[in-house]
Amino acid sequence: MAIKLILFDLDGTLVDTVKDIRNALNYALSPYGTIHLSVEQTKQLIGEGISRLMEKCLGKEGVQWRDAAIKRFLDYYSRHLVNNSTVYPYVRETLEKLSGYKKAIISNKREDLSRNLLEKLDLFKHFELIIGSDTTPERKPSAAPVIHALAKFNIRPHEAVIVGDSNYDMEAGKKAGIKTIAVTYGYRERRYLLDADHIINSFNDLSPVLDIISAELI
Q1: SS3 helix, strand, coil % of the chain, rounded to 5?
Q2: pTM higher than 0.85 for the full model?
């Protein structure tokens, strides 16, 4: 038995988007007196979707501004989606080599933004399915988006893996019963990834790990 489906996180795994997210956040929050966020501060905040992100930034005292801030964020971010965003090293080459696998995106970024980002960076062609934070009733770390993908492809859990840079990806994968592969170059420190079945430091290490997992299933 071999791996048939690879599920990929997007931000921090395939594409470095943090500068554009930081800029959109600072624009969205500017009327509400919050601090000007740095790239490093933004890395610590992102990963759970835009609603949770705004809640973290505004705090309990700013909850009444959440919806307005989200609208400002989406308006700005959709117009500046790839101003500073770049594909991580070896992603393009490795995705080409993985043409024999079914591939899908599971992101906590909204589905339309995920699609647009992939299209603008010429990555969309590699994926048969895009799942965003609003595609299923729950987002990562829930298993719901993973289970949704398995059902769409009619794939059993032991035939799939998830690749991501955060504990949310690993938790979602484990809850769904699939193998997990963490990348260390993204937005979460290695200590948050220790529960992963495999850890890689570069995207071009993915193919050998997939071979190992498939061999273990035989």
Answers
A1: 50, 15, 35
A2: yes
Q: What is the pLDDT of residues 102-118, one digit of tens each?
A: 999 999 999 999 999 99
pLDDT, position 64: 86
CB proximity list for 194: less than 8 A, separation 6 or greater? none
| Dihedral angle, C-alpha 3, 116, 107, 147, nearest 10 ° | -50
Task: Write down the residue that tokens 């997992």 correspond to.
Answer: 213
Residue 11 bears catalytic tag: no
Burial label, 177 (beta-carbon count in 10 A; 0-12, 13-18, 19+): middle
Beta strands, E only, the chain: 5-8, 15-16, 86-87, 102-106, 129-131, 160-164, 179-183, 198-200
> What is the Cα–Cα distance from 49 to 141, expressed in whole angstroms?
11
The confidence score (pLDDT) of residue 145 equals 98
User: Could you tell me the domains of the chain?
Assistant: 5-16+85-217 (3.40.50.1000), 18-79 (1.10.150)
| SS3 at position 35 | coil
> Which candidate in 9, 11, 16, 20 is catalytic?
9
- Per run of 10 residues, the mean pLDDT along the chain (length 218 residues) is 92 97 94 86 88 85 87 96 98 96 96 98 98 96 98 97 97 98 96 95 96 84
Contact status, residue 7 vs residue 149, Cβ threshold 8 Å: yes
